[in-house]
Amino acid sequence: MPSYLAESIDAVRNIGNIAAHPMKKAATGQILPVEHEEAEWLLNILEGLFDFYFVQPARFAQKQDALNATLASAGKKPMKTIVKP
Questions:
Q1: Rounded to two decimals, what is the model's pTM?
Q2: Sign of the torsion formed by the C-alpha atoms of 12, 17, 22 and 24
Q3: Range(s) of the domain holding residue 56
Q4: How far apart are the C-alpha atoms of 6 and 1, rounded to whole Å?
Q5: How is residue 54 annotated by DSSP?
Q6: How far apart (Å, rounded) are the C-alpha atoms in residues 72 and 55?
Q7: Considering the domain boundaries, does residue 82 fall inside one?
Q8: C-alpha distances in angstroms, 6 versus 2, 47, 48?
Q9: Residue 84 falls within a domain, yes or no?
Q10: Tens digits of per-residue pLDDT, 31-58?
């Protein structure tokens, strides 16, 4: 997993804690809401995880299949499987 995604997972925990366990602002005592931008960031992190684990492997598998078809038409052996979607 790319380091930027791994590091972002801590944001999921922190924002989730704000939502699940209301925190108050030290200066005013107001309960901290989860801001729109924070919720959007969580969705971006999830999208990045789905892309890394599901979308990219499927794309690379399709490209590998196409290359193997080209190799087969030239009478060559297929390449070793490097991507499994």
A1: 0.71
A2: negative
A3: 3-73
A4: 7
A5: I
A6: 26
A7: no
A8: 6, 13, 10
A9: no
A10: 888 889 999 999 999 999 999 999 999 9
